[in-house]
Design a protein that fits this description.
Helices cover 6% and strands 33% of the residues. It has 3 helices and 19 strands. InterPro entries: PPIase_dom_sf, PPIase_FKBP_dom.
Amino acid sequence: MRRLVVLALALVPLALGGCSASTSSAEPSASTIGDISDIVIGGSDTLAPSLEFTPGLEYTSEQSELVWDGEGEHLEDGQPLLLDIYGASLVDGTTLINTYDGLPRSFVLAPEVVGEELYERLLAVRVGARLLVVAPPSLAAESEPPIAMVVDVLPDHAVGNEIDAGPAFPTVTRDRLTGEPSVEIPKGDPPADLQVATLVQGSGAQVKDGSYLTVNYSAWYWSKGEDEDGSWVKGDVFDSSWPVSTAPFELQIGSGQVIRGLDEGLLDQTAGSQVLLVVPASYGYAAKGTLVFVVDILDVWNPEGSA
């Protein structure tokens, strides 16, 4: 059995398999058997939840329950999945994973990835749902502790109030099911300076200098051109994180990790927003000419002490 324990530094697949740990010939007494109903989710001094339980009980089977459902779209087989996860040992309370005080993890909603039980549970909920999951030790590693996990299902595209960018900007349309954007680039020469427009106004944390972001993005060429990598025509895709096989992109604002146009253009935006950026070569890639970016800000984490 593979378990739902995606440790931050060990890229273990998110999975709950279809088997449980073997038991000894002496059956445990009822008083030592733990149940998911005995676990209470609480708050903490950080963004993460807390778990209250009686330590040291034996958990012999996988369990999950819906804490609350969300108000977003229903989840579908094969779709990208963005999760915040807090997990702790049910033996001593040691925190095993905490993405709430950091960035969420991305997966694909498939039984071979998340396991049959969690897969079926997720297919019955909407984006915004919270689940509580208990996993016993695996057959391959019975020395591991049983674990409890709080799992929040996050949007994998921008969610908020739509705003009209105006006629001077490229026209952006979004796929009705996935939210993936496409653009129609206007005729004429591109602007000389960086242009930024918020297309969807999210209500999450604000992007600051030093913020860590999880984003989905696509970028297109404004004009035809060529360089040592090849040639392109107006409207060709330069790059995209939207394919299911490509995980959302993680970046830190102000670290020099991304081009100047993104570093400056995403400042002061909020999680949940979709941002349109027209990035001239002087703010991006000199050999590529002007690029049009559409960025969905999926998550923003501001470490303590960030500007």
